[in-house]
Amino acid sequence: MKYVGYYNGEIGPLEEMKIPMLDRAVYFGDGCYDATTFAHNHIFAVKDHVDRFYNSCRMLEIPFDMPRETLVNELQKCIDANEIDHGMLYWQCSRGTALRAHNFPPADVTPNLMIFTVPCELVPMDSTFKLISMEDTRFLHCNIKTLNLIPSVIAYQRCTEAGCQETVFHRGERVTECAHSNVLMIKDGVLCTPPRDNLILPGITLKHLLELAEANGIPTREAVFTMDELRAADEVIISSSGGLCIAADELDGNPIGGKDPVTLKKLQDAYTAFYEKDTNY
Known about the structure:
The protein is of the alpha+beta class.
């Protein structure tokens, strides 16, 4: 199988898997998820992603009590069922299966676990992205990786229609993040990111970039920056599980970045080496 599906212990071809109509993920989006890549049949940064997943469950008060080791084993089963040795791994937990009601279901209703793997190639490091920008009208819990992603879906559709690869969100002039990525910038040799507060997802790739920068002598700063500061940045970086450290060269039709390729390349090379080591390349 190249597309593997899993639901509460059952594994099969993704296109043949079924979930109950009364799963609360269906009618409320009542759940959370995480995703990462795998290579050489190894899950990339598994501890970081699993930790964030359990933190999302905690913040949503979902009683997902499967031990971490057991969850990792179930994720690995799906990878091992693949015909290919690299791709994208996605998993989500819903609050359970019950008749539709806004309050939490009875205590004997247990969470549902869904997993799937699909073929996926990392975005090449020498790619460049074109961006558009939109006012960030999402709610105030963007630090939780919930299933409620409609504003991000619409924002990504707008950038796709514009022939671009990401949408930068901003609240007023404050830059937050992108439709499904984090956004960073390099200015005067410093790697800058917006604060990891409730207005952005604490990206695992973002976390790695900050750690790798420090390890390679690149200063970092975690503080608010504006759209004007982003436009004036020496480099603009888009980071996600599928595109680890990708430079952007256009925002709303105007050129950006391209002024500090040395620091950018140092970060990209460091991430490539880190990824290969973590996945036993």
